[in-house]
Design a protein that fits this description.
CATH architecture: Up-down Bundle
CATH topology: Rhopdopsin 7-helix transmembrane proteins
Number of strands: 3
Number of helices: 11
GO molecular function: G protein-coupled receptor activity; olfactory receptor activity
Largest sheet: 3 strands, mixed
CATH superfamily: Rhodopsin 7-helix transmembrane proteins
Function: Putative odorant or sperm cell receptor.
Helix content: over 70%
GO cellular component, one term: plasma membrane
Low-confidence stretches: 1-10
Structural class: mainly alpha
CATH class: Mainly Alpha
Mean pLDDT: 83
Radius of gyration: 22 Å
Membrane topology: Multi-pass membrane protein
Oligomer: single chain
Main location: membrane
Strand order of the largest sheet: 2-1-3
Length: about 325
């Protein structure tokens, strides 16, 4: 690991290095293989969802349109982080320039924020489907779906651009700074600035409220109304069917918002850099990996389409 005191006295353009997980070669190899396998599983699982929804006309509905956008976001989200992370696990620390760190932060925050907004949009979709089933196709049109996804991505990009610009307008003393993380996330980079960061901390908290707290409140309100509608359904089969369409989405929401809130909405005085890095592993690997599993295992339409597709491909080989 690099010694901090002599490094900070070097001159030259500012660049960053990520703190290593371990210096033990055997553990480095083990972590590299583990994270690589998880990354490949994330790519395969989410790509399978996109493929099966796009190739089965029965799944061309608003709910599955949002689902393939969520899967696409998960692929991009992990790809922004994991390849660079893997390259830094084995061997010497590889520096990332200031501009590269800023670019990673911008795309990471943009994709993560879009993910959160999209989950709120999906909650609205389920609300309309259950509360107003007869008017669902008239209310949730293809044009509205596209507009909501574009607005979610646009708002996330705007917030991310402003936040990233504010962070990297700060001075970073020294030539090479070590980030106690595996990516250029906002809190660990902000800790390295050699200036008063209270105004930026306030902006980060405000963005966190807009991205996490507000959508979470909207989702909670949607599910409160959905729950009331489900209880009014007379048949037990109808209640189970309505609940099954929402339970998968709700499981993803709890995991995503719970982990992100622990990092971005906790007071700085109660946070630990090591804890933030561990929690970040959850929403970098676990959530994108569980999304396809949750939606395929608990969604009969998607799992049935996957079985049909793979069964149809295997049939000529068995003949």
């Amino acid at each position: 690991m690099l010694a901090r005191s002599p490094v900070l006295n070097q001159s030259g353009p500012t660049e960053f290095v990520f703190r290593v997980f371990t210096t033990v070669p055997e553990l480095q190899v083990l972590l590299f293989v583990l994270f690589l396998v998880l990354y490949v599983m994330i790519l395969c699982g989410n790509t399978a969802i996109i493929w099966v929804v796009c190739t089965h006309s029965s799944l061309h509905t608003p709910m599955y349109f949002f689902l393939i956008n969520l899967s696409f976001l998960e692929i991009c989200y992990t790809t922004v982080v994991v390849p660079l992370m893997l390259s830094n696990i084995l061997g010497a620390q590889k520096p990332i320039p200031l501009a590269g760190c800023g670019a990673q932060m911008f795309f990471f925050v943009t994709l993560g924020s879009t993910d959160c907004f999209l989950l709120a949009v999906m909650a609205y979709d389920r609300y309309v489907a259950i509360r107003h089933p007869l008017h669902y196709t008239r209310i949730v049109t293809r044009r509205l779906c596209v507009r909501m996804v574009v607005c979610a991505a646009g708002l996330a990009g705007l917030l991310s651009l402003q936040l990233t610009a504010l962070i990297f307008a700060l001075p970073f003393c020294g030539h090479r700074r070590e980030i106690n993380h595996f990516l250029c996330d906002v809190p660990p980079v902000l800790r390295l600035a050699c200036a008063d960061t209270r105004a930026r901390q306030a902006v980060l908290y405000a963005v966190g409220v807009l991205v996490l707290a507000v959508p979470c409140l909207l989702i909670s309100a949607s599910y409160a109304l959905i729950g009331a509608a489900i209880l009014r359904i007379r048949s037990a089969a109808g209640r189970r069917r309505a609940f099954s369409t929402c339970s998968s989405h709700l499981a993803v929401v709890l995991l995503q918002y719970g982990c992100c809130s622990l990092v971005y909405l906790r007071p700085r005085s109660s946070t630990s850099e090591d804890e933030d890095r561990q929690i970040a592993l959850v929403y970098t690997f676990v959530t994108p990996l569980l999304n396809p599993l949750i939606y395929t295992l608990r969604n009969k339409d998607v799992s049935g389409a996957l079985k049909h597709a793979f069964g149809r491909k295997a049939a000529p080989d068995d003949a």
